[in-house]
């Protein structure tokens, strides 16, 4: 008990040291609030432009290490563009760290650590082994294992060799010793150490088929090896003062999850799928597993955190990057992702700052009573396997009767095919078994069923695209495309000279350049960008602490709406007066406020599409009755607008359907909404 108290105190002190100084142009919520009196107010729908890109106040108790992290080669001048970064992730190679036996080169490692500390960023790191192991290992008796894939050949050490294990553990121990000797200014920023046991940070030892089968490592042998490594590193991390948190790749299929969860209390885990993509087949299974982690975090704020990195290749993502980045990050928040790692090339679009700031506000918030706010980002999902919403008697069978055998074969052969192509268990291609089955089902859906669902929902923007449709054109006038043509830095953030910028702009304009994406990456990106029918999907909204009552009976889902230079249009919900969908109700988590009987002063932020001339109102419970806070009359500007208002409300779920807030249709055109937030 005493140890826990000491640890908690140390961790809180660490958080205080990591708090970033707010930028001069950052506005606090108090400055952004539009005070509303008890009487009803009309609003033309034309708001102050500054409220459309709110910089949330994340100072004080709500500032933390959770949020968007960077990494790579950046200068201090370039860092001024990325003031939203919360941490810095360092990846180094063993062969560069220890180029000669027992001769360690800490220069790059220390430079990166100092750079992060100088910019007041939390620090995490990983040292790659496997194909990045030093050559001297092999001259010291470690067998060199070679492999072949369709794409490349590979060289790896034989991990079970005693000499290899001795040298590997020695390297880990030296890193731990080096961290202990760092100046406090740097040392106290180090919060995370990710294990790398095999091929980079991937869960498998090798990639491809081995040239010599005697070096094959069985699944059980590899798991036993990994458990030894994790246990050793877990103890090393605990020996640091303050403690460093071990981060482990659980594998997207979760095969290591239970052992890690039960044997290494509080261990942090990588959650790849939810940072790579959104609206992916089988995501419901992944969501259920991540919720187990959240229970641990609620008991200990330093425990059981999740990290992931973006790995999109741009084939489809850049068709409307601002839409997709916002959808990706709001989806990640719904799953509970705490750290979103983004290399410099993913930080180039200025519009994405809106999504990054939103993610930073809610990342890490697992306890309602401690969260600065609650949100509900509105969306619909067309799950073709949902026979309750889409009865087979009306929409046809889920699987095409002629493809049932193919579905079974596809599930059985998935892993074998991946091994032969070298993509098995790739960090960027490691599918949950539930996702494998869901994807196979998605690939063999009944065309009759797909067509009937599309016939009903295509009028609202839903699509069923395919990754092979490479001639598809951008869906809107997206500022990300324009920005890409005038990019002034390399993909890793280094400045481009003027001549290189001109060549790059000309190349982009002509559509030149070869797409380096794998088929898996193309399918994944196409699936999230142009395909709205899937299998085993999150059924409706992305939310945290604020839920909508019966979304599909009180509102209509929309896809791809509004201008492309604002981030809110990938998903939305709106009224549909002709079908009785005229009021959306929302319930705040009962534990958000400790006292639910007295009035609380909060800000309500609503983002809506100012299209048409319809009118609507915001309503709440004031302690005695349902009350209208204001009403809005749209002016048909065609842009997404933000309405932010301060009210005194009682959150006792006293409105209809045991809810606290409602958005009500009044007259005219149906208004479409992106999200609603309740901010303290």
TrEMBL record:
GO terms for molecular function: hydrolase activity, acting on glycosyl bonds. The keyword Signal applies. Keywords: Carbohydrate metabolism, Glycosidase, Hydrolase, Polysaccharide degradation, Signal, Xylan degradation. It comes from the Bacteria. Coiled coil: none annotated. Residues 475-488 have a biased composition (Polar residues). Residues 36-51 have a biased composition (Low complexity). Residues 489-505 have a biased composition (Basic and acidic residues). Residues 424-434 have a biased composition (Acidic residues). GO terms for biological process: xylan catabolic process. Residues 1-25 form the signal peptide. Residues 25-51, 416-443, 464-519 are annotated as: Disordered. InterPro entries: GH (IPR017853). The keyword Transit peptide does not apply. This is Endo-1,4-beta-xylanase. It comes from Panacibacter ginsenosidivorans.
